[in-house]
Amino acid sequence: MNKTTIRMMNDNDPERISEAFRIQGWDKPTDQYVKYEEEQKNGKIVSLIAEVEGDFAGYVNIAWESNYPYFKENNIPEIQDFNVLIKYRRHGIGTMLMDKCEEIIGERFEISGLGVGLFGDYGAAQSLYVHRGYVPDSKGIYKNGGYIQYGQEVVVDDDLNMYFVKKLR
Fold this sequence. Notes:
Blueprint: E1 4-8, H1 13-24, H2 30-41, E2 45-52, E3 55-63, H3 69-73, E4 78-84, H4 93-106, E5 111-117, H5 123-131, E6 135-143, E7 146-147, E8 161-167
Parallel strand pairs: 4-5
Antiparallel strand pairs: 1-2, 2-3, 3-4, 5-8, 6-7, 6-8
Helix pairs in contact: 1-2
């Protein structure tokens, strides 16, 4: 793999990120990344960008205050919205982004958290997180503001998640 760099998102990134995902066939509007840039300027998140030889390859966010209840109650920052372009997968870029997230979180907190979807599209992420030492938070499956109960019927989609934690130090 060519030279890969990880840096913080800047004002020039939203449109180029959205375009890269559009070319891949994913709808990720520019406004989403403009919002991330604003939240980063306000200190709510850190948004990291991966580039290969200057080309956008992926991104991830660190939310200092998670909306997920267990993380919020326990002051656990959350790694969120982790995406690597398909053409750059299996080249260590996801690992580099996660390494940087954990380094940044570890400067201020002992534990890192993240959530992951529960169907096949999330299989690579599920494996990556487990191999990195993330373990379930013991709260079960979560969707749209509540924990799923025994016998409850749900639609399996991007909002059906399990959350994991990792002790960083």
